[in-house]
Backbone:
């Protein structure tokens, strides 16, 4: 079995210079989720304007991959309706960062889980 270990250039770039790190002020949804695999936590917050996610941000206490994949999922979510954002997949995240080492797939799962939970909270409050 071949195990992928190296980080892609996109992961390194996203980790060093994330564009969506922070917390959305007066967010319409704001959640904290934890990985069952490693115990790391992330926060996802977003606002919705005119039916679309207008601003989406993250905080991460996780690893470099966690930062990179959270950055990607927030970028992908912006401009989408709630129903469109709900359809984003782990594969969308992996494509967004180029590739992930096999042992770090769960970090991308955590980012997807964060967005799913934030959408769930939004729907419970607003839909
Ligand atoms: S090792 Fe925990 S999020 Fe990556």
Residues:
């Amino acid at each position: 079995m071949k195990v992928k270990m190296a980080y892609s250039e996109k992961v390194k770039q996203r980790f060093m210079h994330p564009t969506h790190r922070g917390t959305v002020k007066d967010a319409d949804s704001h959640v904290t989720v934890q990985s069952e695999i490693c115990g790391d936590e992330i926060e996802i917050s977003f606002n919705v304007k005119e039916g679309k996610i207008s601003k989406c941000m993250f905080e991460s206490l996780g690893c470099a991959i966690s930062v990179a994949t959270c950055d990607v999922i927030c970028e992908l979510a912006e401009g989408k309706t709630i129903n469109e954002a709900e359809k984003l997949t782990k594969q969308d995240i992996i494509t967004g960062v180029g590739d992930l080492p096999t042992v770090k797939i769960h970090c991308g799962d955590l980012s997807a889980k964060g967005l799913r939970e934030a959408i769930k909270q939004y729907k419970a409050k607003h839909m």
